[in-house]
Amino acid sequence: MEVAKNTIQVTPSKSSRIDTVDFDNIAFGRQFSDHMLEANYSYGEWTDVRIGAYSRLILAPSVSALHYGQSIFEGMKAYKDSEGNPLLFRPERNFRRMNLSAERLCMPPIPRNIFIDGLKQLVKLDQQWIPTQEGASLYIRPFYFATDEYIGIKPSDNYKFVILSCPVNAYYPDPVGLMVTSKYVRAFPGGTGEAKAAGNYAASLLGAKQAKAHGYDNVLWLDGIQHRYVEECGTMNVFFIIDGVAVTPHLDGSVLHGTTREAVIVLLEEMGIPVEQRQIDVLELWDAYGKGTLEEVFGTGTAATIAHVDRMGHDGTVAGLENAPEIVLPPIKGRKIGPKLLETLNGIRTGKIEDKYGWLVNI
User: How many CA atoms lie within 13 A of 124 on its CB side?
Assistant: First the structure.
């Protein structure tokens, strides 16, 4: 069901909180912009689509999302070009992926007019919140959850869709360390791994906590059956440069279809770097490191953009790695591919480099 653009009710906030924000010292995901979008779905109809002041949601304790997990989200960013115009990076891609996640969780699709038109109006209204400092951006979080007041396992008849935003700096300002483990898994065939479902991230928290206890920043997840094939990190897709070739896990239903991942593959191919999307045995990584052919590792994601990985280790549970040494990768200054990708992506997103791909939407 399409909802016309002019049916989105806009009520600007009576006052702004922007003066309370130190844009030179922004904590990721802690300070939110003045407005948010809300829309309700009830028994087959989208209603009450509005943009108003950022405020608390009023929910019954029985809403089904809290009990049975029908909840999905997206992550995207807005930037400004040199003339101060707000820019969105591939919003149509996020719109399509959110509806694929909705389909997997048995939720009705979100109309394009609500997602795209509402998003544009919201960002235009809060464009002063888009930071212009190097590496900063306006992070945008659309999310969608079931609101039936019913304790029973079934697809909900009622839902709420919300978009909010917050100014952010880099999610990983420093290189990250990753740990592999076979004790926990993030996803498995037939599951919800390729959906951006809230429960996927809840299931990853304990593994990430234990990775930090071992001195690492996050988990490099392995497949849920054989516990040997690399899938993704808890916050990003991952690429390995092995003997001049960029290798990344293929999309097999357990790996998120990353928007940044897709863009990076295009840029790598334009740089003349061969790209292989395939199964990657974790033992292959340690073998390449031993041979001196593991040249770079980096993650890709909306929040992370390009996150350089400087160390990879394990917790002793992965078969074949029990006595393997920690992988220590070259410093960023000695890398040729990851830094160039980050520079190019940031340049395209802020209009400093020509967008030959149609990735930007000018608001």
Answer: 11
Q: How far apart are CA 329 and CA 331, in angstroms?
A: 7
Helix residue ranges, H only, the chain: 64-68, 91-104, 112, 118-125, 198-213, 259-270, 282-291, 338-349
| pLDDT higher than threshold 70 for residue 338 | yes
The Cα 65–Cα 62 span in angstroms is 9
Strand, helix or coil for residue 285? helix
Find out whether 74 and 125 touch, Cβ atoms under 8 Å: no
- Which amino acid makes up residue 287? D
Residue 234 — very low, low, confident or very high, per pLDDT cuts 50/70/90? confident
Amino acid (1-letter code) at residue 322: E
**Helices (H), ranges, 297-337:** none
Query: What CA–CA distance (Å, rounded) separates 194 from 103?
Result: 12
Cα angle 167, 172, 174; round to 5: 130
* Cα dihedral 245/360/114/304 (nearest 10): 40
Structure tokens at 260: 């940044």
Give residue for tokens 């100014």: 167
Angle of helix 338-349 relative to helix 259-270, nearest 10 degrees? Answer: 110
Instruction: Produce one character per residue of 328-339: b if its CB has 16 or more CB atoms within 10 Å, e if not.
Output: ebeeeeebebbb
pTM for this prediction: 0.95
Alpha helix stretches (DSSP H) within 185-296: 198-213, 259-270, 282-291
In the numeric block, the tokens 């996150």 are attached to 307
Closest CA to 325 of 281, 282, 290: 290
Q: What is the DSSP letter of 26?
A: P
φ and ψ of 48, to 5 deg: 55, 50
CB atoms within 10 A of CB 316: 13
pLDDT at 227 over 70: yes
How far is it, in rounded angstroms, from Cα 250 to Cα 277?
5
**138-153 confidence digits (pLDDT tens):** 999 999 999 999 999 9
Are 88 and 130 spatial neighbours (Cβ–Cβ below 8 Å)? no
254: which 2 tokens?
């357990």
Q: Which of the four pLDDT bands, split at 50, 70 and 90, describes residue 2?
A: low
